[in-house]
Amino acid sequence: MPVARLTGHKIVSGTQTVSTVNAATAVKAFTLQSDQNYVVRWYPPVYTHPRRAVIGEYMDFSQRAHGYYEFQWTFTYWTFGQLAYWRSQFLAGGAESAAVTVLTYDEGNTAMYLTCTLLNPHEGSGLSQQQVGGYEVVTLTFKKGVVIT
User: Fold this and answer.
1) DSSP assignment, residue 124?
2) N or C terminus: which one in the chain shows less Cβ crowding within 10 Å?
3) Spatial CA neighbour of 40 closest among 128, 149, 136
4) Could you give the C-alpha distances from 46 to 11, 25, 32, in angstroms and in order?
């Protein structure tokens, strides 16, 4: 398993195997859009570590996590072209959610491959207010994550 984010965050459309999540699917390797310039590139996200969706507390006050994984990737500034590209690649046809396979990292910086559901970001829910030429903050939410090996 890769460690310490050396391989970057990766994503591929659909429920795939680990072998299909390769260098070509890295976020920073995505095609530059016509409205991007030398400053605005595809940068790796700031992210939350995948966590189990349910934390149970028991009679002895211990806690245990179970259920699917949930996490977010947050990007600082995307142009309208970047958002359109993202949606065309992973949320085709205006879908509100879609299955994806991702490489992200846990709290120990160890790679985690997950199949999960990507939610379509909208203003007020994943997209900050529009700025000149794009959005200042784009937060992508992933739910129903299952670890694959």
Assistant:
1) T
2) C
3) 136
4) 15, 17, 20
Supply φ then ψ for residue 25, to 5 degrees.
Answer: -100, 10
Residue 17 token pair: 């195997």
The C-alpha angle 52, 1, 18, rounded to 5 degrees, equals 75
Tally of domains within the chain: 1
* pTM confidence score: 0.87
Q: Per the domain annotation, does 60 fall within a domain?
A: no
Which phi and psi angles does 131 have, rounded to 5°?
-115, 180
Here the tokens at position 135 are 């959005």
8 Å CB contact between 101 and 113: yes
Tell the burial category of 37 from Cβ atoms under 10 Å away from its Cβ (0-12, 13-18, 19+): exposed
Helix (H, G, I), strand (E, B) or coil at 109: coil
15 domain residue, yes or no: yes
| Mean pLDDT, the chain cut into blocks of 10 residues (149 residues total) | 66 96 91 87 86 80 83 92 96 96 91 96 84 90 96
CA dist 89 and 115 (Å) reads 16
